[in-house]
Every structure is written in structure tokens, then in C-alpha cells.
């Protein structure tokens, strides 16, 4: 199976730091403007995915959800979760208080990868 989500070492380290402070986490990538342009990290249960949103994988064991409309646009793309220094738009995500912001890098899947994609989970 080809995973839809990967993490940089910087993202893994920040997730570990956030989870030690906040407990279980979750990620949500919205499809709108401002905060929707980057993934948001919340305490688990701090945000509720909408019906038919897609969970594309786990970020260090924590669910990574994508807005249903955004997923339709990006469903042929691989996501790599990374971290940048600086304050992201909005500041609702947990890492904002640390002067960090999560970012996703995208690339298209190859023809071979498309045949082996891991399944997604939909919010019902």
C-alpha cells in the first residue's frame, strides 16, 4: 500500500512535543481561506470533521482529516506534513503558541502509486 501522508522529522518532533503537553491530537486541513490554507492541529475532540470529510492517514498515530471538497481536488496528491518557523494565519492551531506553523507539501502520485493507494476513511 502507498500511504497518502508522510511527515518530516521536524513535524514528528513537534507532534511529540504537542502531545506531551496536550495529550491526544488531531489534524484538520480545511478547504477555505486563511486557516484553511494550512493544516490545523487540535486536541482530539477539539474539532469535529464534517460528514464525508476524508481521513487520509495518521500523523504519528493521530488522525489527519481533510475537508471533503478539498479532498476531491487533491485526491491524486501525496501530502507531506512539515513545520515552518513563524506564526501561521489565524493562530488557532496548537503549535502557534510555540512560534511554529504546520505546512503541507504536495506532489502528484505516479501512475504506479495510484494503483496501490491506501484507503481513506470518511466521516459518517
What would your notes on this structure say?
With 124 residues, the chain is of the alpha/beta class. It has one domain (5-117): Hypothetical Protein Aq_1857, Chain: A (Sandwich). It is built from three helices and eight strands. It has helices at residues 9-22, 68-74, 111-114; strands at 5-7, 25-29, 40-43, 54-59, 62-66, 77-85, 100-108, 121-122. A five-stranded mixed β-sheet has the order 3-2-5-4-8. It has a three-stranded mixed β-sheet with strand order 1-6-7. The radius of gyration is 14 Å and the shape is globular. The two termini are 24 Å apart. The relative contact order is 0.26.
What is the mean predicted local confidence, pLDDT? 92
Number of strands: 8
CATH architecture: Sandwich
SSE ordering: EHEEEEHEEHE
Computed structural class: alpha/beta
* Biggest sheet layout: 5 strands, mixed
Low-confidence stretches: none
CATH superfamily: HesB-like domain
Work out the helix count.
3
| Strand order in the largest sheet | 3-2-5-4-8
**What global shape is seen?**
globular
CATH class: Mainly Beta
Q: What does the radius of gyration come to? A: 14 Å
Amino acid at each position: 500500500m502507498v500511504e497518502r501522508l508522510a511527515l518530516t522529522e521536524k513535524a514528528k518532533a513537534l507532534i511529540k512535543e504537542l502531545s506531551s503537553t496536550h495529550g491526544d491530537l488531531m489534524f484538520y486541513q480545511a478547504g477555505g481561506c486563511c486557516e484553511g490554507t494550512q493544516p490545523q492541529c487540535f486536541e482530539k475532540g477539539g474539532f469535529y470533521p464534517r460528514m464525508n470529510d476524508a481521513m487520509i492517514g495518521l500523523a504519528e498515530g493521530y488522525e489527519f482529516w481533510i475537508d471533503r471538497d478539498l479532498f476531491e481536488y487533491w485526491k491524486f496528491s501525496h501530502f507531506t506534513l512539515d513545520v515552518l518557523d513563524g506564526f501561521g494565519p489565524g493562530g488557532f492551531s496548537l503549535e502557534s503558541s510555540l512560534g511554529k506553523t504546520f505546512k503541507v507539501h504536495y506532489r502528484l502520485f505516479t501512475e504506479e502509486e495510484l494503483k496501490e493507494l491506501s484507503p481513506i476513511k470518511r466521516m459518517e
